[in-house]
């Protein structure tokens, strides 16, 4: 690893960290992410302090954090926090790290609901609570429920809701099996969709640190979509909508699943900002 300075400035500390990450073939933006998180500064404050000495305790914490990231641990787990849709979420290895692509799914739900009355919303497989909390934060009048099969994930999600002061109703459930018996205007889900055969192409830090329960699914990653296709209609209100995220190569298969299961529904694929089919809306 690049020689570690003794008492660096904020700028020198970030520069050292960037060199270390680059040498390890890791994204260098983790240096700034961790420095901002550990110092509790925003971007402007960091620029103002760039030439100041970093306090010893913060420098030691930052150097240790960089060591952990270089060793393979995701920066969000090292810091214990991850941004999502303007919120700062607590994350740990019980939950997936929220991805920016999922913010596009939240955008789609919110855009479709513009001007509509209060809605009942269910987030299936909530993990850290990212989708449910973002929707409730943006639409406080909505009744938002969230479920997950993992009790550890639900503990993280409930903690995030309490810390952020966002009221969401959480339930342990295997997909829709144990959710409240009501009909929802919107159901949204980003379920596990990676086939185990894709492991060789995945980043090591994802396989080593993120929860496999939230990553992998049987039947080429389609198992949970197959279950939802057969059960979701009974949980949707008249004119209800289901929104799904999936892998970039799964769109045509998942679209066909829902067209066959709910022939009267309107099924719409949507691309992400990279131009890949990544989202689906099923409208009754």
Automatic annotation (TrEMBL):
One of its GO terms (biological process) is methylation. S-adenosyl-L-methionine binds at residues 125-129, 148, 190. Keywords: Methyltransferase, S-adenosyl-L-methionine, Transferase. Residues 12-80 form the Release factor glutamine methyltransferase N-terminal domain. Residues 117-198 form the Methyltransferase small domain. It catalyses: L-glutaminyl-[peptide chain release factor] + S-adenosyl-L-methionine = N(5)-methyl-L-glutaminyl-[peptide chain release factor] + S-adenosyl-L-homocysteine + H(+). CDD domains: AdoMet_MTases (cd02440). Its EC number is 2.1.1.297. SUPFAM superfamilies: S-adenosyl-L-methionine-dependent methyltransferases (SSF53335). InterPro entries: DNA_methylase_N6_adenine_CS (IPR002052), HemK-like (IPR004556), N5-glutamine_MTase (IPR050320), PrmC_N (IPR040758), RF_methyltr_PrmC (IPR019874), SAM-dependent_MTases_sf (IPR029063), Small_mtfrase_dom (IPR007848). It is an enzyme of class 2 (transferase). Substrate binds at residues 190-193. It comes from the Bacteria. PROSITE patterns: N6_MTASE. GO terms for molecular function: nucleic acid binding; peptide chain release factor N(5)-glutamine methyltransferase activity. HAMAP family: RF_methyltr_PrmC (MF_02126). Belongs to the protein N5-glutamine methyltransferase family. PrmC subfamily. PANTHER family: HEMK METHYLTRANSFERASE (PTHR18895), MTRF1L RELEASE FACTOR GLUTAMINE METHYLTRANSFERASE (PTHR18895:SF74). Methylates the class 1 translation termination release factors RF1/PrfA and RF2/PrfB on the glutamine residue of the universally conserved GGQ motif. This is Release factor glutamine methyltransferase. It comes from Lactiplantibacillus fabifermentans DSM 21115. The gene is prmC.
